[in-house]
Structure formats: C-alpha cells, structure tokens
Design a protein that fits this description.
The complex is a heterodimer of chains A (124) and B (138). Chain A is built from six helices and no strands. Chain A has helices spanning 2-28, 36-47, 50-70, 75-81, 85-95, 103-123. Chain A is globular and about 50 Å long. Chain A is 80% helix and 0% strand. Chain B has one domain (4-128). The chains are: A mainly alpha (124), B mainly alpha (138). Chains A and B meet through helix 3, helix 4 and helix 6 of A and helix 1, helix 5 and helix 6 of B.
C-alpha cells in the first residue's frame, strides 16, 4: 500500500509536472531560434511563468518518489509500471490542455495499460 | 544544403544515445538505491538522512548524468527530426531497461514480464503513430 502511494506520486506528480511545464512552454511560445543567446532568453522567459515552477516542483517530487520505489523494487518492474504516465498524460492533455486524443491513441494507451497489468500480475 | 545521409546518420546517432542513456540512467539509479537500502521516510530526520545518502552516492550521480545526457539528446534531435519519428523510439527503452536490469543488476525477468514489456512497447509505438499536434499553436 505504501509503495502504491509512491507509484501514484511517480506517475501523478511526474505527469502533472510535465503538463505544467508544457503549459508554461505554450505560454512562452514556439522556439524558432536555437542560438545560445536566444535559448538563454527562452530559459529566462520560462522562469517568469509560474506554471514552470509548479511543474518543476512536481517533477522533483516524482523523482524523489522514483528513488524511494527503486530502493524497494526491481528496475525491470518499476520502469514498465511508470509507463502508465502515458495514460495519465493523455487524460491530462485532454482535460488540462484541451488536446484531442484520437481513438488510435486511446488504443495504444490501452495496450500500454494491459502491458503494465501483465507486468504487475507477473510480479505477484 | 545538408546531405540526407548525414542527417540520417546524425538522427540515428542521437536516437542511439537516447535509447542507451535513458535506460542506463534508470538502471544506475536502481543500483544506487539498492546499495543505500530500502528507504524509510517516516520522519523528517529519515527524509534528511535519505537525501544526504542519495546526494553522496556516485552511482546515483552517474544515473542523473545519464538521464541528463538522454534529455539533451532528446531535445537536440527534436530540433530537426519530427516528434512522431522520435517518440516511438522511446518504446524501445522499455525493452532496453529489462535487458540492462538482467545483465547489469542480475534481476530475474520472467517471460510474463517480457510479454508485458512487449505490449507496452507496442502501445507506445501505436501512440507514436498518431498526430503529434492536435491543437492550434498559441
């Protein structure tokens, strides 16, 4: 049960963090100039968007939770289970960012979820 | 104009770096955390103790370095290659993690777990064959 909470944090906080970073990057706008000075300006702009800080904090929590889970379970179990973040990301993308998730993408995500279920069942 | 062969070579090189360093980073984090032992974080003192052990572990820093290398390679390859071309390669990483865990950490990867990993790879591959952008750029 305790591990379940950390898995939930890895997937939930990790995906939430990525969604917040995506939202921040969308607010900054598409990066078209890849020269170092321009990239530095983009970096400074992202730091002024509060979503970026929320995102980085959530990603930090996810990383720390991943370390906790890795101290208890095998890597070959933990990493496949974190693939559930694809499904969490699609849900977040749909409801948080207003993305349209095509049926084909849902089908792929279903396969990911079945794969994770098989990995977990194989563990027990 | 840049030759197509050169662009292909550069793309494959960076994707190769991604497929190696992403899983390697995770495996090194796993190895480092196994050395530290099962994390107990019941009190602030235990959290602080865990953090100090994590931050002084060379293996974990190697893992973080590998993950940063993966991330930089990912960002760079996305600057010239299509997302829909690059993203499905991340599915290979799940198989690579299982392989590295087996050979580097001597973990037992059961046939059932291989089957699950294969299904995950297929699922990520299907996701990668959908349009990468469904909203209008802001």
């Amino acid at each position: 049960m305790r591990d379940f909470i950390f898995y939930l944090l890895v997937i939930g906080a990790g995906t939430g963090g990525e969604l917040c970073v995506t939202r921040a990057m969308k607010a900054v706008g598409e990066v078209k100039d890849f020269r170092p000075a321009a990239l530095l300006r983009v970096l400074l702009s992202t730091m002024r968007v509060s979503w970026m800080w929320v995102g980085l904090t959530l990603m930090g929590i996810a990383f720390f939770s991943l370390l906790v889970v890795l101290s208890r379970e095998n890597v070959s179990l933990v990493v496949p289970v974190t693939a559930l973040s694809y499904a969490a990301g699609a849900l977040g993308g749909k409801f948080f960012l207003g993305e349209q998730v095509a049926p084909k993408r849902w089908m792929g995500l279903l396969l990911v979820c079945i794969g994770v279920a098989v990995v977990i069942i194989g563990q027990q | 104009m840049r030759s197509s062969g050169g662009l292909h070579f550069k793309t494959f090189l960076f994707i190769f770096l991604m497929v190696i360093f992403g899983p390697l980073g995770n495996v090194l984090l796993g190895k480092g955390m196994k050395r530290i032992g099962a994390a107990a974080i019941g009190s602030p003192a235990e959290v602080f103790d865990l953090l100090s052990r994590v931050l002084t572990s060379g293996t974990i820093w190697l893992g973080i370095g590998s993950l940063i290398t993966f991330f930089v390679a990912y960002m760079l390859v996305l600057s010239w290659a299509d997302y829909s071309y690059v993203q499905p390669t991340s599915s290979v990483a799940y198989g690579m993690v299982a392989l590295l865990a087996h050979f580097m950490l001597h973990e037992v990867v059961t046939p059932m777990r291989w089957m699950g990993v294969l299904l995950i790879c297929l699922g990520v591959l299907v996701v990668g064959h959908t349009p990468p952008r469904t909203t209008e750029p802001g």
